[in-house]
Design goal:
By secondary structure, the chain is α+β, with helices and mostly antiparallel strands. It has a single domain, classed as 2-Layer Sandwich (Ribosomal Protein L30, Chain: A). It is built from two helices and three strands, in the order E-H-E-H-E. Strands 2-1-3 form a three-stranded antiparallel β-sheet, with no helix packed on it. The longest helix is centred in the middle third of the chain and has 9 residues.
Length: 58
């Protein structure tokens, strides 16, 4: 399967608990951290939920 690289560019401070949990589920918990995940519908849904805090690199 294809891979997606996701970089956290926004802070989870003053965000809801479910958005923080989504970042942790994506393997992100610190600014500028990069995570590489399988490209699936589940991962894309999680990215869409926190799209204001992440940047998709490819």
């Amino acid at each position: 399967m294809a891979k997606i690289r996701i970089k956290q560019v926004g802070s989870p401070i003053r965000r809801t608990k479910d958005q923080r949990a989504t970042l942790i589920g994506l393997g992100l918990n610190r600014l500028h951290k990069v995570s590489e995940l399988e490209d699936s519908a589940e991962v894309r849904g999680m990215i869409r939920k926190v799209q204001h805090m992440v940047e998709v690199q490819g």
